[in-house]
Amino acid sequence: MSCRPIRRCSSDISMKLNPSLQPLLDPKLSDKLRKISSQDSVESSESRILVMFTGGTLGMARVDGVYTPQKDYFSQAVRRNPNLHDKEYANKLKEYDEALGETFVLPLCSHNRRILYCIFEYPEPKDSCNISIEDWRTLAEDIKENYEKFDGFVIIHGTDTMAYTSSALSFMCENLGKPVIFTGSQVPLEEIRSDGRENLLGALYLAGHYVIPEVSLFFDKKLFRGNRVTKLVNNQFDAFDSPNLDPLARMEVDVIVDWDSIFRSKSTEKFTVHTHLNCNVGLLRLFPGITVQTVRSFLQHPMQGVVLQTYGAGNGPSDRKDLMTEFKEAADRGVLILNCTQCIKGVVSNSYETGKALMDAGVIPGADINPEAALAKLGYVLGKPGLTRQQQLEMLQSNLRGEIRVFAEEEVKKFSLEDSKFIQAIVQTLNISNSREVKSVSTALLPLLMCASAKNGDLNSLKYYKSMGGNLSLCDYDQRSPLHLAAAEGHIDVVRYLLENGTSIYDRDRYGNTPFMESIRCRHFEVIKLIKKTGGHFIRETTKELASLLCSAVELGDVAGLEAFALAEVDFKCSDYTGRTALHVAVTLKKIECIEYLIERGADIKAKDGNGHSPLSLAVAADNKQILELFEAYQ
């Protein structure tokens, strides 16, 4: 089987062709997995992850006593590690189709899920010190090009500039709905005491099991938000920390995900990437005795954005009128100066006169943003075409990707006994007295109550539960989110509200269905259109499975079902496991209305099934003049 490129890039970090990619995109793969799983008496599902290897210590080899990037070395190292690649399972895949290239597979986990992944190694692996803005653009474009083919992405990157790259990608990825996880290591993968094995395994595990729709960074058993991290240590395994935000997830005996902290896109627009970053930005760190000449020269054209690293809570030397004048003149001519504290942890405020002096000079308070994220945010905002100065200022002080905490925007009302008479009644019945148990009751009941409200189309109740701190992305006992239920019932206003409040369209229930599939199954056309507009697409369904669903709709004479699949952009030429298309079934069963609908939408009257029969030959053999006249009319 020939290997098809996902895309070709002009950058020097562009993807090369890799024979391990094709198996993951092959529609036959899911069928093979089902056969293998049934042989092993294992009922397993699978996730598909794209691993993008840019370079870094994790994939380096020791050469002449020093760690050195080696071309094609990373894939070989992974292949040799049984914790990262189940050779036995991979070989079973090949038994069913020898033409399949190598597919990397994690060992089966306790959740009975197989994580299949392919590795794309960029032509020249880079030390992260050599990563450029052009490389950031290429990564973003590659994610966009492959977005609908994979459930998540893992990016292997060197640690020295990983916080800069993860911050930049978080802004460049707009309306992100799938996990993008950066990782790397302090010691190469094949060294005895490497931290790389656990870091790569953890990143793959999280990307394959949880829909955490952020650009994040996994290191030393912790998942951080990508624009909140900084590298603090260069000789320990816990190299990264997120001082102003607790980890999103921790891999301990159990995996603990802080779902309430997950940042979600609140938009009904599709995922896209913004690749134009303004390069005329920089970091200026204040220090006692800094000269006005230094500041003036730094702020000169072509500089358009500056991250000003100040003291304490955003303070500067207010008695240095010469410096304040330079800052004000630069701000007046359009330079965006974003105030970021030099402290590892803390928030910029105007509590001190020395901080207020900077604000009066036109310096923009950056809240609790870190320098890496501040630099990326400036480049992103300045790279947006057509924005007014006021719009730029508003974006810099808004929480775009979870990079800052805007207290008035994000604080929600905490749960109390007075908040809900229903919860209160349960608490009293169970004789619960302490706040922790009250919170547990709320946590257990709110997802069920929100799902019930979504099913009933009760938008007001959903808004109420959210105001009480309810997480609209939590699921019921069947792993169905409120969006699953609203989509299945066709409540378009509830669906829109949930999408605008970050509920994922990619969550799967225990049966593997997404909200998009629910809307199609239940023939709710407006919901289909809205979720499709937001980026909905088929995830687990192969072309053969979709063809089977089309054939079933035809058997029932369900033209509305066909129309639902048409809105979802299913190809009506696809064939099922016997080679039949929906048109074959429609001709055999003489479903005239279905035949008309299918041929109007490009169904092939000459497509042959496994027995060599086409819809046309079937109509000829049956001497069905009505169908033959239809075929002739549409030819």
How is this structure best described in words?
It is a single chain. With 635 residues, this protein is an alpha/beta fold. The protein has four domains: 21-265, 3-Layer(aba) Sandwich (Rossmann fold); 281-409, Rossmann fold (3-Layer(aba) Sandwich); 417-534, Serine Threonine Protein Phosphatase 5, Tetratricopeptide repeat (Alpha Horseshoe), CATH 1.25.40.20; 543-634, Alpha Horseshoe (Serine Threonine Protein Phosphatase 5, Tetratricopeptide repeat). The strands form five sheets. A nine-stranded mixed β-sheet has the order 4-5-1-6-8-9-10-13-14, with helices on both faces. Strand 17 (305-310), helix 9 (321-332) and strand 18 (336-341) form a beta-alpha-beta unit.
